[in-house]
Write a structure and sequence with these properties.
With about 100 residues, this protein is mainly alpha-helical. Helix content is about 55%, strand content about 5%. It contains six helices and two strands; from the N terminus they run αααααββα.
Amino acid sequence: MQQATCQLTPQQAQFMQDHHTEIHRASTQLPEQSLAHLYTSLEYKTVFGDMLWDDALDRYQDWLAESGNIVDWTQVDAKGNRIKTLMDLFKRRTA
């Protein structure tokens, strides 16, 4: 049975949880921080197939919120000022 488009499979959720600290850390660093090594990895492609990283991250964020684990994904600069979310930065780089 196929999952709804806004959900993660158990394997996808586990992959994201396994890398949660790294993903969250990247969301609070300056834009030079990259997760390309993660979403271009063989492990990612095996678990997510052709799913784009922004879709996977959106689903993971939704999954966390639905499970009551809300995480602040807003990026901040060195002074602590909120600038952009990781998703906003990723979409801008790939547009």
